[in-house]
Each structure stands twice: as structure tokens, then as C-alpha cells.
Amino acid sequence: MKANRSGERVRWWTYALLVLAAFACLFPLYWMFVVATTDTATATKLPPEIVPGGNFFHLASLVFTTVPFVRSVINSLVVAGTIGVGQAVLCSLAGFAFAKLRFRGRDALFLVVVLTMTVPTQLAIVPQYMIISWFDWVDTLQALIIPGLANAFGIFWMRQHLSSALSDEILQAARIDGATTWQIFWRIAFPLVRPAAFVLGLLGFVTAWNDFLWPFVVLKSPEMYTAQIAIKALQNSFDIDLGLAMSGSFLATLPLLVLFVFVGRRMVAGIMDGAFKG
User: Fold this and answer.
1) How far apart are CA 237 and CA 200, in angstroms?
2) What b/e sequence results for 124-142 when a residue is b if at least 16 CB atoms lie within 10 Å of its CB, and e otherwise?
3) Is the pLDDT higher at 188 or at 11?
4) Is the preceding omega at residue 120 within 30 degrees of 0, hence cis?
5) Would the pLDDT of 275 be above 50?
6) How far apart are alpha carbons 144 and 140 in whole angstroms?
7) Integer Cα distance of 235 and 54 in angstroms
8) Are 80 and 211 in contact (CB under 8 A)?
9) Cα angle value 256/82/261 (rounded, 5°)
10) Distance of CA 30 to the CA centre of its chain
């Protein structure tokens, strides 16, 4: 047994549970790749095949020829990247206002923002579609970007971080030095909670990348498809080629895997930083 940083012994079953948890998380991804290398008959065979086949590159080429997959991935990168950055900045700005600014109705307005998290997303589709139609944004990427630039969870998340990270004394000192509210936010408050904002932006990126329902309602033309809608277009109305569908799903997952390889440790550090501050 090895000792952790606090000097306590880590028992063997702790590692066993971690290995089982890692296996449970990684096996669906591995199974998706296995199906992406075979055909439907092999994928539905009992007992199932657990060894990858040799059809991945053939099926991947079919994905690129059946739907405009590269364009769809680019569209998803534009939408998810813009939403991620927008949530990191706008939710931080709103969280700063609710945490440190004094204005009439602040607490009541924040309560309304929090209560919106109890409303199912599906209920907002009809009025949201009516607004998008009024702006003539149907079948455009801004119909996906604008509604996702801020959300209630992000505002709540950043308010909690700013409440604990930024003291009132620092704000008073900055105002005495002549700093404006925007300067206080951008030069003092936002750098303090940058790890939390980074985590929020990454969560917003992943959520926007995996979103299916709203893009399926709004987007009509193939050149405007996102990656998830392109995967849906691979499926026939009467028959589903599991190998082809899983090839598209695996290719659409690769950008997220690459993203987490580079920023996974920073994301965990940002989450842990918020946990210790709380």
C-alpha cells in the first residue's frame, strides 16, 4: 500500500474501484470503435465481437461521401467554440454583477435566474423557434449560437466563485484609485476566477458540440449541419447501418478526445480550485 499526501495508506480496493470506474467509462468508447469497424450483422451477433474489424477506413470514407461531414465538423467547431467563449465571459460578467454590485431587485432577479434551471429545455423550443423565425435566423448558425451564449447554471457558477474569490475591500480600493466597474471586472475580478471560467467554457463547448434537438429543429440545409445532425443524416428511415453510424459517431467524438488530452488536467484543476474555495 502507498501513502497519499496526507500520510494515510491507500488500500488495494481503492485502486480496484478506480480501475473498474475507468473501465466502465472507457468501454462504451471502445465498443463504439469496434462497431465502427464491422457491419450490422457482426455488431448484433451474440455473443458480441469485442475485437475490432478491418472496415473502419472503408466506413469512414463512406461517412465523408454520404454527408458533408468536414463542413459539419467545422460548423460544430464554430458554434461550440463561440458558445464556450461567450459563456466564459458573459456568465462571468453576470455573476460579477450579482455577487458584487448593488442594485434594486438584485436578489429577486437572481432568484428568477436560478428558477429557470427548473424549467425543462424542451419547453423553450417553441417560443425560442418563434423568436428565431422573427429574426429570420432559421437555418443559420447564429440561431444556435445566440441562445447559448449564457445560461442560468453558468451565472450561478460564476457568482459563487466571485463571491468567495473577490473581497469587498479590493473593490473599494480599486474604486478609490479611480477604476470603473468594467475595469474592476476585467482587470481584477475575471483574472481571479479565470480557472472557473475556463471550466465553464469547456462545459459549454462540450454541451454545444453534443447538442442534437435544437440544431435538428432549426437547421434545414446539409451545408449548415452540425456534426450531430450529420450523424443523423447517415441513418436511413427504414434501416440503420450500425457500422456507418458508429463510424460517424466515432469521428465526431475524436475532436472532444483531442480537446480533453490537452486541457483535461487544467479542467480538473479548475474544478478542484472551486471545490477547495467552497
Assistant:
1) 37
2) eeeebbeebeeeebeebbe
3) 188
4) no
5) no
6) 8
7) 21
8) no
9) 25
10) 21
C-alpha closest to that of 53 among 250, 234, 243, 248 = 243
Residues contacting 263, CB < 8 A, separation 6+? 198, 202
Consecutive H or E run containing 2: strand 2-3
Pick the CATH number of 67-233 from 2.60.200.20, 3.90.870.10, 3.90.110.10, 1.10.3720.10: 1.10.3720.10
Q: What distance lies between CA 68 and its chain's CA centroid?
A: 23
User: What average pLDDT does the structure give for the chain?
Assistant: 87
| pTM, full prediction | 0.86
DSSP 8-state class, residue 148: G
Closest by CA position to 15, among listed 4, 5, 30, 31: 4
DSSP class of residue 8?
P
Q: Residue 238: pLDDT above 70?
A: no
Q: Are 257 and 73 in contact (CB under 8 A)?
A: no
DSSP secondary structure string, 26-84? HHHHHHHHHHHTS-HHHHT-SSPP-S--S-HHHHHHHHHHHS-HHHHHHHHHHHHHHHH
- Round to whole Å and give the CA distance between 24 and 269: 23
Written as nine digits, the cell of 273 is 480550485
Per-domain boundaries in the chain: 67-233
Pinpoint the alpha helices (H) of the chain: 12-36, 40-43, 56-66, 69-100, 106-115, 125-134, 142-145, 152-165, 168-176, 181-184, 190-192, 194-210, 213-218, 227-233, 242-277
